[in-house]
Amino acid sequence: MKRMGMIFRAKANKALDRAEDPRETLDYSYQKQLELLQKVRRGVADVATSRKRLELQLNQLQQQSAKYEDQGRKALALGREDLAREALSRRAALQQQVTDLETQHQTLQGEEEKLTLAAQRLQAKVDAFRTKKETIKATYSAAKAQTQIGEAFSGISEEMGDVGLAIQRAEDKTEQLRARAGALDELLASGALDDPTGIAKDDIQAELDRLSGGSDVELELQRMKAELAGGSPQQAIEGGQQQGQPQQTQDQPRFDKQ
Q1: What are the DSSP calls for 148-198, one per residue?
Q2: Is residue 57 within 8 Å of 65, Cβ to Cβ?
Q3: What was the pLDDT predicted at 256?
Q4: Cα–Cα distance, 140 to 125 (Å, whole number)
Q5: CB count, 10 Å around CB of 70?
Q6: Which keywords fit this entry according to its UniProt record (predicted)?
Q7: Which of 59, 72, 131, 242 could crosslink 87 through cysteines, CB 3.0-4.6 Å?
Q8: Which ranges of the chain have pLDDT less than 70?
Q9: In the chain, at which residue ranges do the beta strands (DSSP E only) sit?
């Protein structure tokens, strides 16, 4: 079972490696980094919003504290020491709240500064990754195109391999048809096959063709004899033609002109 599992994982890994496109993986990683950067920015914005809310509360408490102090002075000036003491007591309570809010404000301000610095660093990292990503994608695309061109020239790619097989089959079929056509021509010339487009030759036509071919040979032979004997080739040819003509016999009828 372990062996089967290992074989399955190996085949699955090979299939995934064949299907994986590094450019798509880089784009996906860049998208994830952008999402993380967006989350950090939202965190910075949330902390800044909380800090701003504390600042507004501090301003209100400080204004109220100043108001109590002013009221205490006025009451003391009027001889109302009791009212002055009450105003100062309320101011003291507000001052404790102001102190607590100032502590929280400093904490939030520190967190905001840390998140802002982290966001800036992450932004620089994302920008650097984007530049590197585009460089790697361009290099990969160029290498892939060069590989495809090399495979096309060498004929080892699947597409060019199919084209090569098609050309080879076409050439083989052409040679087969040419050989068949040549064989049929030879068979027709030898008389082994009848020519369906011509008229079949009978025995008389074959004999006439033979005599016609033989007379050409006799004429050439008479010309050569005349040249050797010193005579005129034309006379020899005419003599050969006269010798080749059949003589009239007495039995053959003669037709005189009337």
Answers
A1: HHHHHHHT-SHHHHHHHHHHHHHHHHHHHHHHHHHHHHHHHHHTSS--TTS
A2: no
A3: 44
A4: 22
A5: 12
A6: Coiled coil
A7: 72
A8: 1-20, 151-164, 190-217, 231-258
A9: none
